[in-house]
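QA checklist item 7 of 12: single-chain prediction sanity check.
[x] sequence parsed
[x] length recorded as 121
[x] structure emitted
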Amino acid sequence: MIQAKQLGSYGEAAAAEHLKRKGYRILDRNYVTSFGEIDLVAQIDAEVVFVEVKTRSSQSYGEPYLAVSERKKRKYRQLALSYILKAYHREPAYRFDIISVVLNRITGELQQLEHFENAFV
């Protein structure tokens, strides 16, 4: 059985693979600052994409993406600004995506993955 913390790591790995298959380049994984963490930073063409990955082992409490609160979205905006200030001389085009993942808790098998582009502003 997969532990809760591992479940999140498995979900992030599945999300990163999904993005790569769609032509994205992964710039950063688990970008950490003193006020939080961005799960994935990717790039497609000239656009930087900040990705929140939500992983669950079932949909008993709703779809995983529904767990991204307004508070979390505000935090992601702050984290994105921090990342941009550190990594770029000029503000690039960017957006916020959510990838919702459901995994089998016993086997780790991917059961569902949904990618929501421009999920919030």
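[x] summary fact logged: The CA atoms of residues 31 and 38 lie 5 Å apart.
[ ] second reviewer sign-off
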